[in-house]
């Protein structure tokens, strides 16, 4: 692999790692509804604002979300909606596996 390819794969892996936490994944899925203020995200996730801020910072660093100031509010929006396609694909496989496991337990 050349340096450009290695860097491309490294950045891609960072995005996958950022998506790999339940809270961050929940934020990404929530933002598919549109731009939201931090207060709405905190209410949706159900954890402390400091915790949400750390997760949003990481999502922003990887390019999954962007922010803008609107008066005193910070608004976040999803900038990589294709990430939701990947999440839906994974969810389909997970649901199928769970159904198969349940069928084996019942049998």
Automatic annotation (TrEMBL):
InterPro entries assigned: ArsR-like_HTH (IPR011991), HTH_ArsR_DNA-bd_dom (IPR001845), Metal_resp_trans_reg (IPR051011), WH-like_DNA-bd_sf (IPR036388), WH_DNA-bd_sf (IPR036390)
Keyword line: DNA-binding, Transcription, Transcription regulation
A single GO molecular function term of this UniProt record: DNA binding
Residue stretches making up the HTH arsR-type domain: 3-102
PROSITE patterns reported for this sequence: HTH_ARSR_2
PANTHER family in alphabetical order: ARSENICAL RESISTANCE OPERON REPRESSOR ARSR-RELATED (PTHR43132:SF2)
Protein name as annotated: Putative transcriptional regulator
